[in-house]
Design goal:
88 residues; mainly alpha; 2 helices; rod-shaped
């Protein structure tokens, strides 16, 4: 085992490791990531709609894509509301 006695960690008076990330900033980063994912899912939905109109794919693909888009949008809205509800 390596001797790590020379490595020091920043600790709070109570012995906990100090964290720079607050709940508000974590919610913000989660919202940004979910928004980017929602954009990708929406592009897939648009691709599936154009595929249905061209007759290239089955309607079940559009149903699956629509459910994924709805789920992604609802998570993004939840994280946005959660982020706004956090105190400064």
């Amino acid at each position: 085992m390596a001797n790590l006695s020379h490595v020091s960690s920043v600790t709070a008076p109570a012995g906990r490791i100090i964290s720079i990330m607050t709940l508000k900033s974590a919610a913000f980063f989660a919202w940004i990531g979910t928004t980017l994912l929602t954009i990708l899912v929406a592009l897939g939905f648009i691709r599936d709609v154009s595929g249905i109109l061209a007759g290239a794919i089955a309607a079940m693909a559009l149903l699956r894509s629509g459910i994924e888009l709805l789920a992604s949008l609802s998570v993004a809205v939840f994280l946005y509301v959660f982020y706004k509800a956090q105190p400064r």
